[in-house]
């Protein structure tokens, strides 16, 4: 057992948890998007934009705390990286919703709902995992499951691309829809990057 002679700044744990909770909010807005009409999508995009701004505020709060703390709970570089990666997830989700509205997409291709379901599950797991950074316990199943979900997201993404290029859509529509499903795939990748970073932190702290 390791003993620490200096106190550590513990507010980071609460801020990481708040950032992850905000990502859950974003994933729920993505789910709402699936069943919304054009006017409803515009309203969801506004709420997603507000959530993304809240995510930025949470990230900046972590950076500010990092710059003003002499002692940190784990490596400064890892704190910065984890905060940045959590912010990336929110950015990708907001971008996807914004593109749906900006491109006036009438109907999302079949399979997008599966992408969003994977993101929603990854968001829940990430939010559940963040408080466990305090003890570095009960995290192994988290990063294993998020990696499994990312593999599932890859398969869904490939099937979506095959569907988009099957000749059903015109070229412009393919470009629009492909950009949306690509951004959702980037969000899935970002969840995996967060999980991998948590694993690295846990190994260092063990």
Explain what the structure shows.
The structure is a single chain. The chain has 206 residues and is mainly alpha-helical. The protein has one domain: Methane Monooxygenase Hydroxylase, Chain G, domain 1, CATH 1.20.58. Helix content is 78%, strand content 0%. The chain contains six helices and no strands. Helix 1 packs parallel to helix 3, helix 4 runs antiparallel to helix 5 and helix 4 packs parallel to helix 6.
Keywords:
206 residues, mainly alpha, globular, disordered N terminus
Compose a concise summary of this entry.
The protein contains six helices and no strands. The protein has 206 residues and is mainly α.
The CATH architecture can be given as Up-down Bundle
Largest sheet: none
**First-to-last CA distance:** 10 Å
**What is the CATH homology-level superfamily?**
Phosphate transport system protein phou homolog 2, domain 2
């Amino acid at each position: 057992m390791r003993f620490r002679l200096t106190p550590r700044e513990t507010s980071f744990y609460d801020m990481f948890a708040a950032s992850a909770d905000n990502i859950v909010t974003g994933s729920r807005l993505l789910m709402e998007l699936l069943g919304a009409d054009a006017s409803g999508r515009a309203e969801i995009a506004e709420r997603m934009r507000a959530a993304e701004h809240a995510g930025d505020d949470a990230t900046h709060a972590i950076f500010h705390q990092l710059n003003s703390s002499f002692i940190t709970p784990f490596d400064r570089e890892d704190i910065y990286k984890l905060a940045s990666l959590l912010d990336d997830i929110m950015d990708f989700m907001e971008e996807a919703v914004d593109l749906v509205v900006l491109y006036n997409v009438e109907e999302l291709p079949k399979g997008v709902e599966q992408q969003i379901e994977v993101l929603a599950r990854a968001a829940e797991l990430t939010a559940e995992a963040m408080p466990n950074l305090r003890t570095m316990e009960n995290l192994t199943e988290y990063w294993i499951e998020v990696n499994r979900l990312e593999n599932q997201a890859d398969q869904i993404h490939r099937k979506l691309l095959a569907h988009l290029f099957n000749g059903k859509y015109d070229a412009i529509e393919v470009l629009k829809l492909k950009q949306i499903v690509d951004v959702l795939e980037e969000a899935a990748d970002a969840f995996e990057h967060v999980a991998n970073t948590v694993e690295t932190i846990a190994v260092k702290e063990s």
